[in-house]
Amino acid sequence: MTEPPPPQSTEPPLPPPPSTPSTTVIHPRREPFEHGLLPIPKLIFSDPTQTLISFKHKLIELSSNNRVDSVAVSESLQISVEQAKLVVDTIASILPYESESDDTVDVHDLVLFLYIQSYKRLLPRTHKDSAAVADVWPSTSAFDGYLSALSPLQLVRSNSKRFTPSQADEESHQLSYLQKHMANIVSLLAEPVEGESEESLVLTMDRFEHLGLLIQYGDKGSEGSSLSQSSPFFANSDPDMPAVPVPASQVHDWLLENIASALEYIAERTSSKENGPVSASDQDVAMTDASTVSVKVSTSARGASFIEGISKSSYAKHASDIKGSSVKVLNCHESAIYILAPLRYATIYGCSDATIFIGAVGKAVRVEHCERVHVIVAAKRICIANCRECVFFLGVNQQPLIVGDNHKLQVAPFNTFYSQLEEHMNEVGVLPTVNRWDEPIALGIVDPHDSLSHPAGVSDVQTESATRVDPDQFTNFVIPNWLGGESTGSTKDNPFTLPEAYMASQQRNATVTRSTFRRKS
């Protein structure tokens, strides 16, 4: 395969509403909704506000400096220590800043995390031509079994972007959720004024800052200024003096006003796109048919690069090509994708019959709705959801998380390198000395965060876990020479130490290769 010259299409940043300064345009932070939802039933409460307020006060009494460890989380939520550790690690992976400790979590971040476990993801959109869909992805397979009705895989496994919600759709959905629940969210962070009634709730600047887990201002994402400095309440506070607390009702009203403005603007922009002339960049976005090959490589306003619709090709991006700190690989088929860059987040969605290599991811990777894909990644953590017949070659510091309806997954140790890999791993905090590739955690087959109805009796069924690749089948993955344009680094070999069985197999294969070469010579 050769590297194609796909059309470059960069979407301009979304301009703010005219009356709103660019630094105060509100957005939901996508990371909690994309990487922070866990299918653990005990994390979802029928009355989350009152339950979590009581839970918060209890944990603060037990905490040191408002931080608790996984043992305290386990005892308070009545979940296993393993699941509590998963909660702590997941929160650390979605924070807009680096966590103070790998072993503890701030109580206020914890209660916000637990509250949003009630969030329901936006469903993929259906296609107007169901016959075209069936031609690409048959609705049944030998793997479906009795759970085939649970996950509409045929709606997302297609070359057509019409199957996945647009970024505007998802942002509107997340903003609408925050709009509906903002009163409860603010109350979880507020505290009463000493000597006054319990209705007199206020937010200190520190408590207000925790809202930055869920919302942000401006288009720089996690790399922008702190939330308090983007608000009218604390923007001019003296750093040497404690800021005056703000009535919670004022914060709530201000947030709702900004969310309403943002939703109105998104609706206006979407309407103008649907009714107005189609621009060159919009033509890349509108993929017209399930059998049409269309490529989009773009950068969003808030720091995500998209690689989309690549088919029967090889494609590569280096660090200098990536604008922002996250990458999404969407609907790529029968291709080889190479991303040689340091990232915070990566998503692989709706791909099939492909090999996808991602260099170093410091926060989280999510692989979803993929089939017969080989994924090679060095990362802090990875979540695999609703995948079939995929193989994962992993260098991961935390246990791989497997959720949803999965079949015939395999895991193996990381098996490649490029010259800047160790530099990129160090930059984003991935440790070469820790690799938990063979310790997957399998959770429920039913995801309580989707919007589907599920048959009774399957909510507690555990998903199928992954098996190890036979060491005799293990081989090194060689990154092609034509990707050596930035070969300035010092990495000469796989930075992760291979387990003994895989090392022995690798050496045997090398010996056989040398012997074969000598005989042919």
From TrEMBL:
<protein>
    <submittedName>
        <fullName>Uncharacterized protein</fullName>
    </submittedName>
</protein>
